[in-house]
Amino acid sequence: MPLPQGLARFNRVVTNRIARTGAGRLPGFGILVHRGRRSGRTYRTPLNVFRVRGGFVIALTYGPGTDWVRNVLAEGHCELETRGRTVRLVRPRVVHDERRGAIPQPARTVLGALNVHDLLYLAEDS
């Protein structure tokens, strides 16, 4: 796992609450809306998102075992609020990519320094 779980907990409790206020409108950011696989509760997770042909890719900075990733994979779909609009995303798949080829160069460099190699690809529902 690239980043420590303690940081993940801090981000979930503190940083995410702040980030949710603007993440759905800012370029390169979005709010992933997904359902808890056990609770059925709706969650809103602010993330960095990158546009790719036919959908979006998200770098898994805490690894593929995080609750939100597992929720999206179990449900098979989610919604992304980005740049002021809501997009339904389907067919989630985790890809291990040492080069992080779908990520723009500046972010790719940072993610490489953090040892992040797993990406979540999501297709736009047509």
Instruction: Sketch the topology as an H/E string, one letter per element.
Output: HEEEEHEEHE
Query: Count of DSSP helices?
Result: 3
Largest sheet: 7 strands, antiparallel
Total individual domains: 1
Taking the alpha carbons of the first and last residues, their distance comes to 33 Å
Give me the count of strands: 7
Global morphology: globular
Overall pLDDT, averaged? 86
Secondary structural class: alpha+beta
Oligomer state equals single chain
Text of the CATH class:
Mainly Beta
Topology (elements, then pairings):
Blueprint: H1 5-19, E1 29-35, E2 42-48, E3 50-52, E4 55-59, H2 67-75, E5 77-82, E6 85-96, H3 105-113, E7 118-124
Antiparallel strand pairs: 1-2, 1-5, 3-4, 4-7, 5-6, 6-7
